[in-house]
Amino acid sequence: MIYLDGAATTPVRREVLEAMWPYLTGEFGNPSSHNALGFSAATALTEARRAVAGFLGCRPAEVIFTSGGTEADNLAVKGIALGNPRGRHLVISAIEHEAVRESADYLARLHGFEVTVLPVDSVGLVSPATLKAALRPDTTLVSIMFANNEIGTVQPIAELAGVARAAGVPFHTDAVQAAGWLRSSVGDLGVDALSISGHKLGAPKGVGALFVRGRIPIEPLVHGGGQERGIRSGTENVAGAVGLATAVGLVDLPQSESVAGLRDALIARVLDTVPDAVLTGHPSLRLPGHASFCFPGTSGESVLLELEQRGIVSSSGSACAAGSDEPSRVLLALGISPEIAQTAVRFTFGAEVTEGDVSETFGAVREAVAAVRGLASR
Ligand code: PLP
User: Fold this and answer.
1) pLDDT confidence band for 375 (50 / 70 / 90)
2) Cα(40)–Cα(193) distance, rounded to whole angstroms?
3) Which residues are the active-site residues?
4) Site residues for ligand 1, CB cut-off 6 Å
């Protein structure tokens, strides 16, 4: 099997599991307990927070551990929008993950917010000028993702955040897909909040973190015992936090270049062998291990099945929206027709993938597309 669905999830790395193990077994204390086991757990949590803060270039107190990317996004969007007395206007992009979009929708439905959804161009980029024009005196938050899960496009976050900062508006970015691949220093990016998720970078599912700049007021969403500085109550997932901290410590940004080389080889060879295939997203400003296409005259789901029979595990789009028969909103936002959007297939991978895997993949793509088209023309 060649696993090319790393944007959906990744396996837990051995080093991560080994670092977590003690906190799932012998050192199982509750960090709030005033006993030796509790102190040991609290120390592990403090160290994990320090490591994640080091990775993001922020202060440890600015890291809030969450149950994953979805919760981090919810906390950022709802928590900052509700905590900001400026007003009830919110700006997001047309290609945000559901966690951001549905949070904005919730604020509109239940809290009277007005949401401006910024368009993207045909390769998925948000224009800083469009953002600037959308900002108002009552704008409470801008949320634009760092890199998109379906099309891989990487936004000019530093520039976009600069536009928001000039207007005094907090800026959140969903870096769930980007964090393992692109430098995610919150200082360089100039963002006020940033979400990451463990299972996209070799930690388990169910742990993530939100960075929120110290001076930004944030309204808690989960109330209870006051953990995480009162912003996210609930007994901390100590092992998960240790796993996340270990995983970010293993992020190897220089690897991105060789992975991008394989991505470009895969893109070139697929476009060569399936001449009417359409690359979705930006040709170069995209995640290193992300190649996404539409194959007109097929259905993405059928190509996926044919690929799986040939040992290639890929995805027909976003795993989070899986099970939905609707064409992808992200692809529609690029101006792709609903018929073509139904033919999307995404290949996402990391440094474990070899040149041989890429050759096998493009060969399998050619066969799979031909097989689906053959069936369709019968
Ligand atoms: N944001 C993006 C861009 C994602 O790709 C995902 C997951 O696919 C999430 C948020 C949600 O993260 P989690 O699965 O940790 O809830």
Assistant:
1) confident
2) 29
3) 320
4) 68-70, 73, 97, 99, 145, 149, 174, 176-177, 197, 199, 208, 320
Residue whose CA is at the smallest distance from ligand 1 atom 10:
69
Tracing tokens 């028969």 back to the chain, one arrives at 325
Looking at the chain, list the stretches that DSSP marks H as alpha helix, in order from N- to C-terminal side.
14-24, 36-56, 69-74, 81-83, 98-111, 128-134, 157-166, 186-189, 238-249, 255-273, 300-309, 329-333, 338-341, 355-377
For residues 257, 321, 55 and 207, what is the CA-based torsion angle, rounded to 10 degrees?
-140
**Cα(336)–Cα(327) distance, integer angstroms:** 10
Query: Residue range 286-294: average pLDDT?
Result: 98
| Antiparallel, parallel or unpaired: β 193-197 and 208-212 | antiparallel
Do the beta carbons of residue 117 and residue 143 sit within 8 Å? no
Give the H or E element holding residue 116: strand 114-118
Cα separation, 348 vs 311, whole angstroms: 15
Residue 165, CB-side half-sphere exposure with 13 Å CA sphere: 14
Beta strands at 63-66 and 89-93: parallel, antiparallel or unpaired: unpaired
Cα-to-centroid distance, 70 and ligand 1 (Å)? 6
Tens-digit pLDDT profile for residues 171-196: 999 999 999 999 999 999 999 999 99
pLDDT at 139 exceeding the cut of 50:
yes
Please answer whether residues 289 and 255 qualify as being in contact, where contact means their C-beta atoms are separated by less than 8 angstroms.
no
Q: For residues 119 and 117, give the distance between their C-alpha atoms in angstroms, rounded to a whole number.
A: 6
Residue in this structure with the two tokens 């102190």, named with its chain if needed: 39
Query: Strand, coil or helix: what is 350?
Result: coil
DSSP state of 328: P
Specify which residues 65 forms β-bridges with: 209
Contact call for residues 142 and 116 (beta carbons, < 8 A): no
Identify whether the C-beta of residue 362 lies closer than 8 Å to the C-beta of residue 312: no
Separation CA 171–CA 161 (nearest Å):
6
Which pLDDT score is estimated for 317?
Answer: 67
Helix (H, G, I), strand (E, B) or coil at 137: coil
